[in-house]
Design goal:
Layout (H helix, E strand, L loop, with lengths): L6 H12 L3 H14 L7 H24 L13 E6 L5 H8 L17 E7 L2 E7 L12 H5 L4 E7 L10 H7 L1 H11 L2 E3 L12 E10 L7 H10 L5 E3 L8 H12 L1 E6 L12 E4 L4 H8 L1 H6 L2 E5 L7 E3 L10 E5 L1
Parallel strand pairs: 1-3, 1-4, 4-6, 5-6, 6-7, 8-12
Antiparallel strand pairs: 2-3, 8-9, 10-11, 10-12
Helix pairs in contact: 1-2, 2-3
The protein binds guanosine-5'-diphosphate and magnesium ion (MG).
Amino acid sequence: MPANLPPQYFEAEARYRLTANPREKIEILREMLGIMPHHKGTDKLQADLRARISKLNKEMQKKHTKRRHTYHINKEGVAQLVLLGLANTGKSQILKALTNATPEVASYPFTTNAPIIGMMEFKNIQIQLVDTPAINHDFMLKWLSDIVRPADILLFVVDLSRTGFQPVSNYAVRQASSLSTITERLEKIKIIIETFIPPEPSIEYVFKKAIIIGNKIDLPHVNENFDKLKNKYPNIPIIAISAERKTGLQELKNKIYQSLNIIRVYTKAPGEKPDMNEPIVLPKGSRVIDAARDIHKDFVGELKYARLWGSNKFDGQMVERDYILKEGDVIEFHL
Ligand SMILES: Nc1nc2c(ncn2[C@@H]2O[C@H](COP(=O)(O)OP(=O)(O)O)[C@@H](O)[C@H]2O)c(=O)[nH]1
Ligand SMILES: [Mg+2]
């Protein structure tokens, strides 16, 4: 029986031949599988493609177990955030738009082979962003776990112009569930999104806060995909942006700041003005005494009271050591 392969298949095959990158080869083979009609006439070809994928996967796994990298990224700034997503969703473009880093941005997959770090300025604090290589169905670099585990927040990047594809091929189906691909992968390395329920009760799991970034809203037909995503993950904060056009970035930064659950407070010496460029960053719910500890551990024993300038008090009002601080409060310590 003739295979009757569509022209897209041959186009993909040509790309397959051109690349030497095994990850890219796998991606294209899967695309070819998705494109080809599935009937008796293609059985053999399907089996052949699957065998090639499995061989490439094994080779890559071997390579990576041989030279096992462990990555440790020193935390800088007030928090460390990791960008995660399938290839071409725009992770590197986002890093570029939000930080001073200059990652390679390209319209072919897997341009990012190592973590790339950038610092994002927000108000008067710095937040560290880490760009990662793409995750896909059956492959994820082993060291990604080293990077994801210490992260404070995971930023899931989704290409909104692709998520809602009609499931016309396997390739498109995978795109339609790009976020679940990522969360399933993370589950395998015992990382669970805070609002999810772990598959089995176990103390091995690490729970992570996440934000979904729907990227490429400058492209057509993205609203529907955005709504679908929102309905599917009602408990994860979600924001629509265009990294390329730089739209929605301020909202994204605000969302990130909210999710960090931190406050910024300031200190001043009696009779002087506070330095509003040098905040003390503390977890929400912190007390006067926690701010004192942040300055010097000896302060904790010596602190008698503090005066406070802020939204909830009249200027310079005396407060106890246990007074719970609010965003923007200015504290004057009295020993
Ligand atoms: N239209 C549009 N294209 C984008 C946007 N962000 C990224 N891209 C394009 O998507 C492709 C992949 O981007 P890249 O950042 O390398 O993706 P990564 O593989 O996730 O790091 C590139 O061709 C980018 O120019 C966006 O906001 N709008
Ligand atoms: Mg990239």
